[in-house]
Amino acid sequence: MSVTAAPGFVAGGVACGIKASGAPDLAMVATADGRPVTAAGVFTTNLVAAGPVQVSRQHLVDGRAAAVVLSSGNANAATGAAGRRDARRMCELAAKGIGADTADVLVCSTGLIGIPMPMAALEQGIPSVCAALAGGEAAGTAAAAAIMTTDTRRKEATATGTGPAGTTFTVGGMAKGAAMLSPAMATMLAVLTTDAVVDASTLQQALATAVAGSFDMLIVDGSRSTNDTVLVLANGQAGGPAIMRQGAGYQELVVALAAVCGSLAEAMARDAEGATKFARIVVRGARSHHDARLAARQVAGSQLVQCSLHGEDPYWGRVISECGASGAFFDPEQVDIAYNGITVCRDGVACDHDAVALRSAMSEHDIEVTIDLRTAHGEATVLTTDLSPAYIDENMRTS
Amino acid sequence: MSVTAAPGFVAGGVACGIKASGAPDLAMVATADGRPVTAAGVFTTNLVAAGPVQVSRQHLVDGRAAAVVLSSGNANAATGAAGRRDARRMCELAAKGIGADTADVLVCSTGLIGIPMPMAALEQGIPSVCAALAGGEAAGTAAAAAIMTTDTRRKEATATGTGPAGTTFTVGGMAKGAAMLSPAMATMLAVLTTDAVVDASTLQQALATAVAGSFDMLIVDGSRSTNDTVLVLANGQAGGPAIMRQGAGYQELVVALAAVCGSLAEAMARDAEGATKFARIVVRGARSHHDARLAARQVAGSQLVQCSLHGEDPYWGRVISECGASGAFFDPEQVDIAYNGITVCRDGVACDHDAVALRSAMSEHDIEVTIDLRTAHGEATVLTTDLSPAYIDENMRTS
After folding, report:
1. Pick the CATH number of B9-270 from 2.40.50.100, 1.20.1560.10, 3.40.50.1970, 3.60.70.12
2. pLDDT level of residue B228 (50, 70, 90 thresholds)
3. Strand arrangement of the beta sheet that strand B26-31 belongs to
4. Residue B178: its pLDDT value, please?
5. What is the DSSP letter of A242?
6. Which of B43, B44, B46, B48 to mutate to probe the A interface, most A CBs <10 Å?
7. pTM of the entire predicted model
């Protein structure tokens, strides 16, 4: 169960011919009755926002949506006015399929940039995916599969929380993303649904907080894409009083959204193109959380640190150097660095350690690099991977 | 002729045993008479500055220096108080060798981070390199060879200029750098000498301007190192009136320094670890030069753009996406992008082009990516390379 975990939502996925391989490439998530519910979204900060991002932003102005239609294999980015028209047409087709207004449908696309959308395929495909909409696990799985591009695995997650007056709500979500991954935000699409009772501005605030602590803390190759989108629909079927900002159940909603987003973000890092290692870069003791984020992102995004991880080389010199280049302030001679708990640098210089244990620690698939700046209490964790020749193989040619 | 091109300077290079390979690893540049002359320097902005950077900054406070001693194979970075003591001892040994004051010697080191300097080798080596100091081409070549690390070629350059009252001055320089290359500044060392007549603050201003337009516009892997240093010594032997800031000969001095720095920066990009392509990212039509730099650096530093260059794939979608992520402001639907003069994107969308000519253009070793943002007149050029599996091979293990 993922995007269909909360009651009152349906999903589906089909192959409509965008991908030459014939793999599933068109997904939809909708309310079971086709009526609009509370919705919120976080979009790429890239100035070159794709057509579907521009259209979804417009359609979210009223904080309501009945469905999301998602295509994979073509990003519909850098396609100009024709791209916006095509994105709107996708919404119109989806709206017709479920009996909703066009302005209540959101749209996401992912894939290659700069290529016109193959609209003939979508004219046929969107009615098909509407016909395939269903509740339950298989439907959620079909949708999660249809948004994959270079992903090798579906990415799905669920969480539950306690709302006001003892009610219980569920959050389910699905995502795609395997490259062009960088904070603010990763190249990725994610759709979440929940039965929580919440108004649009509260939901927007809760989603933004959840994204800041999850998708924004994932950095693989430092590229922010044209299409990044995280959407959430909340149908209120959990019942009971509404969750108000900072009121009863609000923190629980943020935690549940963050749990789903965090789980999806970790799944993205674990499925990143060509990666052979999964790493958590943990910065502690920074002057502020902001400084901790600066340092953790700079270390996580460093090609040279990623090369060292690939070679299982505990070369902490690159780690401290990236901290120094990050803009975070600290005393370079009060820094401790550890790999999977084995401290290799203390007070900013090399320290004695068990070389055999360290070699064994570096051979693990999961590596935690802990950097204590020993200045104050700022903390941040960023997820990343190693950089391998397979990443280059996968990205050197688009065809 | 390079660092010994201007009259009155001597240089030398020897192997002293820092590098296990036995390759040359210790260089020196000095005034022929051991007397201090006008000097200026630009150093890394990394908070984790290596011991030699800290010591050289102190020794440059008076704007005068008699010599620079440079070692390769060990960066003497993240070595704490012992590292500063070792760097000062290197200056002391060099000063003794040429009869100068310790405070008039500058010091640079490059190599691995976090390892104590092998001072026994330097106690023997620095007297040897002092004994080897000589004028002329062979001595300059020996010094340029002794600062190489993963460089495969020496990097040397010269230029001449016209000073006040019809005098002529010469600028010569040498550099090293093949990875950890990023603006502000590249992981690199460079030493320049000139016989121009100029005071220290004017020389500092001229050098900073030259570096901003050359070394700062080189980005290979986005890592700013702990040891980056560019130094210039000016002995005034060209004679005639002094060059004053913004006065006669000043612009000529900046141009000559920039010519040498630019030539050395290009040599670094052409010798970058694992690179199979050399690329110029040219941004025009930006709102400001600042915006042009933001966009050009973001495109040049993009792993995904570099992967495309490696695959000879004219995937301009990644180029426009990086421009959009750079912070530069422009209209995404007024962007033109060309590879070696062949326009593939016009008005922000794909345009017709000669596919055969484009394939041939992409197969060139040198690729110029031109991005016209068509907003105003801001321009910038940044040098970069492709990203190849050989880069990862070279950087995945330090030993």
Report:
1. 3.60.70.12
2. confident
3. B9-14, B26-31, B67-74, B105-112
4. 66
5. P
6. B48
7. 0.85
